Amino acid sequence: MEKRVMTDSKRRRGLIAVSALLGGVLVLSACSSDDGDKAADGGKKSQAEADEAAAKDASAARIKITPKDGENKAGINNAARVTVSEGKLTAVTMKTSEGTAVAGTISADKKSWKPDAQLERATTYKVTAAAKDSEGREAHENASFTTVSPDNSFIGNFTPDDGKEVGVGMPVSINFDKAITDKKAVQSGIKVSSSSGQEVVGHWFSPNRLDFRPEDYWKEGSTVTLKLSLDGVEGADGVYGVQQKTVTFKIGRNQVSTVDAKTKTMTVTQDGKTVKTIPISAGAPDNPTYNGQMVISEKFKETRMNGATVGFTDDDGKGEYDIKDVPHAMRLSTSGTFIHGNYWGAKSIFGSANTSHGCVGLADAKGANDSKTPGSWFYDNSLIGDVVIVKNSPDKTIKPDNGLNGWNMDWSEWKAGSAV
């Protein structure tokens, strides 16, 4: 019995020892679990600290690419640009979606970049830019945009051309390839000025045509500047301008020629002085010449004139006349009025009879090679933009929008047609 009790006591002590051991293991396990949580927390804290450190070490340079990424109606002139603040650009590349590189230039201060030339319409471009801040840390930015298509853009075809010398009556005439509904926005993007200081005002003849002129003819010897700032201007719903350019033209001597249909003569003046009087033949009584101030808009040493193109046809539908080599022809109206040489008429009609279908005829020679004829002299001494005034004809005054003939509208009415 005693032995058994002792055995139970040993067993009890052994169980206690095992329990203690197991307790120790449990304690140790618990401590290990606590340490693991701390390690895990410490890991999280370390990652957050790493993120914070990385943010603190990021470049201060801020790159901006315009147009914004995804733009699909970007302008083709001034829209594309890369700028940086708090740093300097180190590299910029622009390519089309097909991989064609676009040349561009970083500014001297390395704060901006732009393409060297106008972009193409309906084209997707990809831009990649890099910059460094004052500590040499790099920043990068990428963007892709698409320029306006022909369907959602408009252009203005203007006259006269850059660098030309023209007569004192030459207006700036702009014909848009799409109808303009926001005339104020478009006209605000166009400036016409003269070195003479004359006030210049625009007048809308239609949603597609805008002309500019001063109250009186341009001052001889002055320079006129046309500035188009239409890139990105919304001229109609979803239709944007793409032009950004400046052109200048010079006003020549002041030549005005006055045709008197009654006396059948034309008096040519330069700077107010008569330089030549020429006998003419104007429109016949059945087809009189328009009255009014007309501007020479085109010059042709020789051209074809077919009556069918301006409504003069016979019973068979053919032109009442078809002359394939009219010499020294100068257009005065869109509807077909010209002042031109005439070699087929009798010399006796000039100064004595009006025989044409509405044009003003001057004696001339076939082939346009005789410089001694009145037709040749007038052609050689005329500029596009010179004024030809017709008076004392039984016809009405020509409409201001029939050719470049806005001078037939008084100044108050002209200004009333401005949108600004």
From TrEMBL:
Pfam families found in the cross-reference section: Big_10, YkuD
Database matches in SUPFAM superfamilies: L,D-transpeptidase catalytic domain-like (SSF141523)
Listed PROSITE patterns: LD_TPASE (PS52029), PROKAR_LIPOPROTEIN (PS51257)
Keywords from the UniProt entry: Acyltransferase, Cell shape, Cell wall biogenesis/degradation, Peptidoglycan synthesis, Signal, Transferase
Superkingdom as given in the UniProt entry: Bacteria
Annotated InterPro entries: Big_10, LD-transpeptidase, LD_TPept_cat_dom, Transpep_catalytic_dom
Signal sequence region: 1-30
Keyword Membrane found: no
Residue ranges annotated for the L,D-TPase catalytic domain, each copy included: 255-391
Key word Transport present: no
UniProt pathway: Cell wall biogenesis; peptidoglycan biosynthesis
Positions of the catalytic residues: H340, C359
Protein name: Ig-like domain-containing protein
The organism of origin for this protein: Streptomyces monticola
